[in-house]
Amino acid sequence: MTTDFAATKTVFHLPEGVVYLDGNSLGPMVKTAPARVARAVEAEWGELLITGWNKAGWMDQPARVGDRIAKLIGAAPGTVVMGDTLSIKVYQALASALEMNPKRRVILSDTGNFPSDLYIAEGLVRTLGGQYRLKTVAPEEIMSHIDDTVAVTLITEVDYRTGRKHDMADITKRAHEMGALTVWDLAHSAGAFPVDLAGTKADFAVGCTYKYLNSGPGGPAFIYVAPRHHEVARPALSGWLGHEAPFAFDLDYRPGSGVERMRVGTPPVLQLAALEAALDVWDQVSLTDLRAQSLRLQDQFIKGVESRTTGLTLATPRSHMMRGSQVSFRHPEGYAIMQNLIAEGVIGDFRAPDILRFGFTPLFIDEDDVARAVNILAKIMEYGTWDKPQFKKRAKVT
Ligand SMILES: *Cc1c(COP(=O)(O)O)cnc(C)c1O
Fold first, then answer.
1. Which of 25, 85, 246, 319 has the fewest CB atoms within 10 Å, counting from its CB?
2. Can you give the pLDDT of all 398 residues of the chain as single tens digits?
């Protein structure tokens, strides 16, 4: 299959005059989402009321949608389930993994990990009575710190700030050789490039859907458990919908079969409807083509920015193998520069202390968009128009 990116672009609604380089943070809306959500509200909730759980398939939706996500991350059917937010799913995966490696006490992560993942690990360590330790090292040093004290590695494959990509196959192999389990956070991987969970033998993986998978703000997360762990992994958040028989209303918890035991409570049916609409586009996409096109767009952007501006320092590795689907530049006044860009219709985002972040999402961004973004950034840098009080006032979300 050769992917027609001009065709995928027509699937998305993008406001007039905007170059949206922030699909890595919040994916845009697919044009079919409003009708799909309206159907779930009016025809399902409105007309079916409580019978929607059976008649509209709401109860099976987390597994059904999970199977569609599985195809995008190299996972077999029946190994991925939807629900909750990513932070919750990090907890669920990490707690299970720790319990499966009871002689070890170290959770290994890196300083490039997203803070919420680290906060969740800290909280879990505290709950477990402090006998565990969260150890964070520089991203480049992860491999050399995987030793026989490590119970679990908790690593986000792509660094949310720099866009640096870990080698999932290498790290997983090393972790297994040393007797550690792996929890991979695919927040910036799923829908961004091919992922091979089965091939790399990853143990657990989690990710969100509102970034590259375009489910909309508040869209649910997913969790993957390798089939070999299905009957061993015990959920710490043992909610009724992960129970073997939720409607038996037993007083004791018995984990359900397979990955569905990782479910917690009632699924977000309306949000899953938006996600289902957003997932349709992947039927016409080859992930290999997506990766190639993403790297082309990134290279075009890096080359344009480096040849036409001064003062911006590339924070993303130059090596294709070490990149995700975003490009970041550093500048001490990065916040103001980004606000100026946004005012000019080029939307990226800012991550403290000095990172300007640009996501490249070929499903709706093309070479003309990149050229326009480079032109506008070059103009802003040349004339220093960012140096105004209006661009320096910090909003709640950056
Ligand atoms: C976006 C992101 C999150 C956000 O978690 P939520 O619970 O969905 O708010 C967590 N971890 C990583 C690595 C992320 O990139």
1. 319
2. 799 999 999 999 999 999 999 999 999 999 999 999 999 999 999 999 999 999 999 999 999 999 999 999 999 999 999 999 999 999 999 999 999 999 999 999 999 999 999 999 999 999 999 899 999 999 999 999 999 999 999 999 999 999 999 999 999 999 999 999 999 999 999 999 999 999 999 999 999 999 999 999 999 999 999 999 999 999 999 999 999 999 999 999 999 999 999 999 999 999 999 999 999 999 999 999 999 999 999 999 999 999 999 999 999 999 999 999 999 999 999 999 999 999 999 999 999 999 999 999 999 999 999 999 999 999 999 999 999 999 999 888 88
Tell which one of 22, 116, 159, 355 to mutate to probe ligand 1, the residue whose CB is within 8 A of the most ligand atoms: 116
**Of 265, 282, 299, which closes a domain?**
282
Are the C-beta atoms of 392 and 336 separated by less than 8 Å? Answer: yes
Q: Which residue is catalytic, options 185, 203, 349, 369?
A: 185
Does ligand 1 have an atom closer than 6 angstroms to the CB of 185? yes
The verdict on residue 102 lying in a domain is: yes
Determine the distance separating the centroid of ligand 1 and the alpha carbon of 4, expressed in angstroms: 30
Please tell me whether residues 41 and 132 are part of one structural domain.
yes
Ligand 1 near 87 CB (within 6 A): yes
Distance CA 95, CA 236 (A): 6
376 in the same domain as 253: no
Residues 111 and 129 in one domain: yes
Bond from prior residue into 362 cis (ω within 30 degrees of 0): no
Instruction: Please tell me the total number of residues recorded for the chain in this structure.
Output: 398
Give catalytic status of residue 253 as yes or no: no
* Domain interval for residue 339: 5-30+286-392
Instruction: Given the residues 114, 160, 193, 358, select the one marked as catalytic.
Output: 114
* Statement to judge: residues 11 and 81 lie in one domain: no
Known catalytic membership, residue 211: yes
Q: What atom of ligand 1 comes closest to residue 188's alpha carbon?
A: 15
Could you tell me if 206 and 296 lie in one domain? no
Q: At what angle do helices 269-279 and 61-72 cross, to 10 degrees?
A: 30
| Residue 398 is assigned to a structural domain of this protein | no
Comparing C-alpha atoms, which of 224, 210, 156, 223 is closest to residue 184?
Answer: 156
